Amino acid sequence: MSKVTTELDFFGLEKKQTNNAPNPKFKKFLDRRRSFREIQGAISKMDPEIIKSLLASGANPSETSARSLSVPSTPKEGHPHIPISPVHAPLTRPGMVPVSGTVPMTIFYNGTVSVFQVSPNKAEDIMKVAMETSPKKDKSMEKDLPVIPQTTLRTKLFGQNLDGDLPIARRKSLQRFLEKRKERVVSTSPYFPTSA
Amino acid sequence: MEDPDTKKPRSTPRNVDDVISLVIPYVTDARDRASASLVNPTWLRADSETREHVTMALCYASSPDRLSHRFPNLRSIKLKGKPRAAMFNLIPENWGGFVTPWVNEIALSMGRIRSVHFRRMIVSDLDLDVLARARLDELEVLKLDKCLGFSTDGLLTVVKHCRKIKTLLMDDSSFLEKDGKWLHELALHNTSLEVLNFYMTELTKLSPRDLATIAKNCHRTLVSAKVGDFDMLKLARFFNAAVNLEEFRGGALNEDPEKPDKYTKLTFPPKLSRLGLTYLGANEMPIIFPFAAQIRKLDLLYALLETNDHCKLIRKCPNLEVLETRNVIGDKGLEALAQYCKKLKRLRIERGEEDEGGLVTQRGLTALAQGCKELEYMAVYVTDVTNECLRTIGAHLKNLRDFRLVLLDQEERIIVADLPLDNGVRSLLMGCEKLRRFALYLRPGGLTDVGLGYIGRYSPNVRWMLLGYVGETDEGLVEFSRGGCCPKLQKLEMRGCCFSERAIAAAVMELPSLRYLWVQGYRASMTGEDLRVMSRPYWNIELIQARRVPEVDERGEVGEVEHPAHILAYYSLAGQRTDCPPTVRVLREL
C-alpha cells in the first residue's frame, strides 16, 4: 500500500488484524454518518462533464494521473478501439501503472465503473464538487468526504479459510429493487419532510 | 454441400447415410445431435451442415473459428460469459466474456445467422455496429441479456440497420443511456416487432409516445413487452394499441394517496396472460382482477404486496402456471397456492427484506407439495425447513426437474431447524427422479458428510448443482464423488464449503461428466498449488483473486466486504484465456 501523508485510513485497515477476524463486516470501524450510499448518491448525481473537466484540468499534472481503467476493459489482441470519453486514456491492457502519491478512486456511474489514480487532494476536490452539484443536500453528509483507499491485495491475506462467513449474496436486480423500495417507504412516511 | 433449406427427398435413398441426411434436420435436441455426430464422419458431417442452433454454456469453451468451421450454416447462437455468480455481484465486472471475437466471426463467416443471444457478456457499441452492418435486415433476434459495456448509440445502430428485427432484448443489462433515439427509430420504421424488452434497465429518456407508436405499427405482431419504469398512466395509449399483447412486465404504479382511483380506468389488452407490474400495491391490485382468471404467469418480484394481498390475488388466478415473488408471500400464501393454483408449474420465491414480514417454512412447503403436483421448477429461500418436509416433496412432486433451496441465515431469530437434513435430502432425491438441476444452500451443520454422500449417490440425472455450506470435512467430498456418483453432473458450483483445494481437485477427477467448476469459499493453500491435482489436457484452471469491495450493507452503511478467491475450471478447446483482467490468474502448466 502506498504511503501518502494525507492518506485517510478510512476503514482502520492499519489497525485491523485481518487474519483473526471471523467477521468480515467492518461496520464497527466506521462512523455511522459516513454512509457510502450517500457518497455513491453524490457521485451518481454528478455531471460527467464536470468529472471530465476536473480531471483534465489538474492544476499539477504530476499530481494526478488520469489513467483510467474503464470497464469493460478490452481484450489484448487486436481489439478495435472502443469509443470512450477523452478523459479515459485508452488502455489496451487493463494493468495500471500507479503514479506515486496517487491512490485508486473508483466511480460507479450510470452502469459503468471507472477507476482513476488520484491524489487525496484531487479526490477531495471531486467530492466537494459532487456535493455542490447534487440537487438534494443530504444533511448528514460530511463536508470532507474521505477517499476510500484500496489496498493492494495479496492472495496470502485471504488464503486462509474465512470460517465460512460468506453472507448469502442477493441478486443484483433484486437488490436494486429493494433499495428503491426502501426509498419509497421512507418518502411516503408521515414524518418525511415534503419540502423537497 | 446440400442446401439445408430445401429438404427435397431423393427418389430412393440408397443407403443409411442418405437416410440420415434427410432425417437429421428434424432432430433438434442438442444432446441428440451431439450423439448422432459421434457415430461416424458421415453423420458428423450431416449434423454439422444442418445444425441451426448452438448454445455455448461458456464462451471460452471453444473459439469462434472452430464454431463457424464446424457449423457453417448456423442460424442462431447463444453464448454465456461470466459465471452465474455475476448475477449476485460476486464476479469482477471486467472478468471477461467479450463478444468481440464472436461478432467478428459472425461478420466474417457466419452468413446465415438470424438470432444472437449474449448472456452475461461484455458488449461494446462497436461490436453492435459490426453485427448490425454484417447482418442487416436478416438479423431477427438480438438478446443482450445481463450484458454490459455498450450505450444507446449501439442500440440505435442496430435498429437503424436491422429493420426487420423481431426480438430486441436488453433485459437487466447495464449500459449508458445517452438518449431515446433508438426507441424513436424503432417507432419510425419497424412493423415486425414481436418482443421488446428493456426490463430492469434504468432508462429515463424514452418517450411513451414512441412506445405507443410501436404498438400501433406492430399491433399484429407484438406479443411481449417488458419495459422500464414508465408510470402506468403514460402507457394507456400503448395498451390500447397493443391488441395482441400477451405479456407485459414493468411500468410503475406510483400510488397517490390523494387519488386512490388513479389507475382504475386503465384497460389492458384482451389476451394478456403473463404479467408483472412494478410497485403493484394492495390499492392497485384490483385493476388486474377483471382478467386474473386468464393469468398464467405472474411476476410479483417487484410488487409491494403483503402476505394477505398475495392470498387475495392468488385466489383469483386458478390458471396460474408460473409465479415469481418474494418470501413475503409467507406460508399462508403457499397454502393459498396449494388450494387454488393446481396448475402451478414453476415457483420462484426470492429473498425479500426482513422488515417485510412473511416467512416461508416447512409448513408452506409441505402444503405446496401436497397441493401443486404439477410443479416442475421450485426455487425457494426459506427461514426454516425440516427433513419431513423434504420427504413430502420427494413423495409428491414427481415432475420436479429443478429444485433449489436456500436456508436463510437470520441472525436475530432463534430458529429451531431440523438439522442436519441428510435424510430429507436423500428422500427428496430418491423421490424426484426427473431432477436435472439441484441447488442446496444451507449453513454449517446443515448437511453432514454422509448427507453429501447421499447427494452424490441419488442424483443420477442431475446435470447442474449449486452446493452451499454442505458437508463437514473433505471426506464428504470423497463420498460425493465416489465411483458411480453424479454420473451426469456437468456443472458444479460450490460456495462456503470447508473443503481443501486438494479434495476439490480430487473430486473433479472422479466426476465423469464434469466440464465446469466454480468454487468460492474453500480452504485455499497459499499458492493454489494443490489444484494441480486436477491438471489435465484441455482443462483450464483459473483463480479470481480475493478482493475487497466497497458495498452498502442492509443498514445502508458503507463497508468493505471481503470477497474470497474463486476457482473456475472448465474444459476448453481454445487453450487458456489471453484476455484476463488483473484479478484473474490463469494456472499455467509447469
From TrEMBL, chain A:
Q: Which UniProt keywords apply?
A: Jasmonic acid signaling pathway, Nucleus
* GO terms (BP aspect): regulation of defense response; regulation of jasmonic acid mediated signaling pathway; response to wounding
Localization recorded for this chain is: Nucleus
A GO CC annotation recorded here is: nucleus
Task: Spell out the residue ranges making up region: Disordered.
Answer: 58-79
Residue spans of biased composition, Polar residues class: 59-73
Q: Which Pfam families match?
A: Jas_motif, tify
Domain notes from UniProt: The jas domain is required for interaction with COI1.
The UniProt function text for this chain reads: Repressor of jasmonate responses.
The family assignment reads: Belongs to the TIFY/JAZ family.
Stated name of the protein: Protein TIFY
Source organism of this protein record = Brassica carinata (Ethiopian mustard)
UniProtKB/TrEMBL annotation, chain B:
- An annotated GO cellular component: SCF ubiquitin ligase complex
List the InterPro entries: COI1_F-box (IPR041567), LRR_dom_sf (IPR032675), Transp_inhibit (IPR041101)
- Give start and end of each Transport inhibitor response domain: 72-118
Q: Which GO terms describe its biological process?
A: SCF-dependent proteasomal ubiquitin-dependent protein catabolic process
Highest taxon, organism lineage: Eukaryota
Q: Where is the COI1 F-box domain?
A: 15-53
One Pfam family assigned to this protein is Transp_inhibit
Name of the protein in question: Coronatine-insensitive protein 1
